[in-house]
Design goal:
Layout (H helix, E strand, L loop, with lengths): L12 H27 L2 H7 L7 H18 L8 E3 L4 H9 L4 H29 L2 H6 L2 H13 L2 H7 L11 H21 L3 H4 L1 H23 L26 H8 L5 H33 L4 H24 L3 E3 L1 H10 L4 H14 L3 H9 L2 H21 L9 H16 L3 E3 L2 E3 L1 H16 L1 H32 L1
Helix pairs in contact: 1-3, 1-15, 1-16, 3-14, 3-16, 4-5, 4-13, 5-12, 5-13, 5-14, 7-13, 7-18, 7-19, 7-20, 8-18, 9-11, 9-18, 11-18, 13-14, 13-15, 15-18, 19-20
């Protein structure tokens, strides 16, 4: 894949701002969705008798700070953005449902993020002293490739579902929303394929603007004619500007510090059990994202800056982000997909995106404007974005011999269990479909290669014995020749 800007390249500052905005738009929906899902969690509402109030602005701020920490640990050599992790949704809900007060629930969010970060630190230490060969053995291309593909394919339902939704009237016409989404997708494709220079590098921004414009026309007509079916955009969101708390993020640590007085040993254990196993699951996704990004920039990030550095950056960045926003972070496939489509891998862009996310958290009009972007418009973008993630994973196995049943079984198990949505739940711990697919893929790959490994080992031994015998024979004959 040809990159216009490589990792260490520095585009002109004006362009960087535009590129950074594109990255921010790519990760925005998922990042602010996590606190929204927690706020609407029925178990939490039942537990407390009311919903919690996690701040979307704080989550955006936490993602920006987490990304800055990650960039520092990776010495600005890995161009990926960290955002709120969906994998920890169950863990976050468990932290609230196990608490005696909402403030203690926020305390649990901080403790959980620290526990998850410690898992990354421990694994990073192991990698530092044991190397990454065991990673490559457990997760070669035949395992990682289809797993990356699953990351994209597992999000396909979200993208398609969003294509027919607005954020205005609940009765918005499905086909009206679909038109807005398809316009977004079509313009994104045209800009990327036929665009010149700069246009080719910002297809998401152009597509979103086009889709938003069409949605705005429908909405204005709907407002004028009192037709709810045409009200795709909810402009009433801007009314929140009248509320003072809309102008600053509601930081997690403010509530968390109030909950420390209620903390108990049993609650700490509950949080640890909810977070630690999930951290191991996200570790697998961390490797998949970095291997995928490595193929795009044609440089092995697991070697330079090193898996230990990326793990430390992800773990510490996740804890730092949760301190402000409550949501543990993770590397985003959407960010990787944005790099692939735009051809811009400049780490400066990621740095500016992180700063932009931090500033945006304090700019209420900007945050609320982003909130007015209807689901159908973001769905149109995500069809391309998630598709690129899936295709990049499939490209990893283009040199894998699928005529060999060993490889065929491994890929098949991962694709079917991942697309089929195999999810395992043990108490308060949920293993996502991606994690299940990866774990089964690793086990399958080890199973089908047991005999192969033994054959290779025997072949190696035979070769060594033959070489030793030939050497001995030469040494025996040499004196006679003299």
């Amino acid at each position: 894949m040809k990159l216009v800007y490589n990792v260490q390249d520095r585009p002109p500052f004006a362009r960087v701002l535009v590129f950074a905005l594109q990255q921010l738009l790519a990760i925005l929906a998922a990042t602010i969705a996590v606190p929204t899902v927690i706020n609407n969690n029925q178990d939490i509402i039942t537990h407390f008798g009311k919903s919690v109030d996690m701040s979307q602005s704080a989550a955006l701020l936490g993602a920006g700070i987490g990304t800055l920490v990650y960039l520092l640990f990776t010495k600005f050599k890995s161009p990926v953005f960290l955002g709120s992790s969906f994998a920890f949704l169950g863990s976050m809900a468990a932290a609230f449902c196990g608490a005696v007060s909402i403030n203690l629930g926020f305390t649990g969010l901080l403790l959980g993020a620290v526990f998850a970060g410690l898992v990354y630190v421990v694994i990073a230490i192991v990698v530092k002293y044991c190397g990454t060969k065991w990673i490559n053995k457990l997760m070669p291309a035949v395992v990682i490739g289809p797993t990356v593909a699953i990351i994209g394919l597992s999000l396909a339902g979200n993208a398609v579902g969003d294509l027919t939704k607005g954020n205005g009237s609940a009765s918005v016409n499905t086909y009206v929303a679909l038109i807005c989404g398809l316009v977004t997708l079509g313009v994104t494709i045209v800009a990327s394929v036929y665009g010149k220079k700069m246009m080719k590098m910002i297809p998401f921004i152009i597509g979103i603007c086009a889709g938003y414009a069409v949605a705005a026309v429908f909405t204005v007509i709907g407002l004028a004619a009192h037709i709810d079916a045409l009200k795709v955009i909810d402009f009433s969101i801007f009314q929140r500007l009248t509320h003072a708390n809309a102008w600053y993020p509601d930081f997690t640590f403010i509530h968390a510090f109030k909950g420390f007085k209620d903390i108990t040993g049993s609650y700490i254990a509950t949080v640890a059990v909810a977070y630690v196993p999930v951290a191991f699951v996200v570790f697998a996704e961390h490797i998949a994202d970095h291997k995928n990004l490595s193929t795009i920039i044609e440089k092995d990030l697991l070697t330079e800056p090193g898996l230990d550095k990326t793990l430390l950056g992800d773990g510490v960045g996740s804890a730092a982000g949760a301190f402000f926003g409550g949501c543990p972070n993770t590397t985003y496939g959407e960010s990787v997909g944005c790099v692939a489509i735009s051809g811009n891998a400049s780490v400066v862009t990621i740095l500016v995106t992180a700063c932009m996310a931090i500033l945006a958290a304090f700019l209420a009009p900007f945050v609320l404007f982003l909130a007015t972007i209807p689901s159908c418009v973001m769905g149109g973008v995500c069809v391309a974005l998630y598709g690129f993630i899936a295709v990049s994973g499939l490209k990893m196995i283009q040199n894998v011999d699928l005529g060999d049943n060993r490889n065929m079984f491994t890929v098949s198990v991962i694709l079917i269990t991942g697309i089929g949505g195999l999810v395992l739940t043990f108490g308060k711990v949920t293993i996502t479909s991606i994690a299940c697919a990866l774990i089964l893929g690793i086990l399958t790959n080890l199973l089908v290669n047991i005999k192969k490994d033994k054959t290779t080992e025997n072949a190696g031994t035979s070769a060594a014995e033959t070489e030793t015998a030939e050497t001995a024979e030469v040494e025996t004959k040499e004196p006679a020749g003299k």
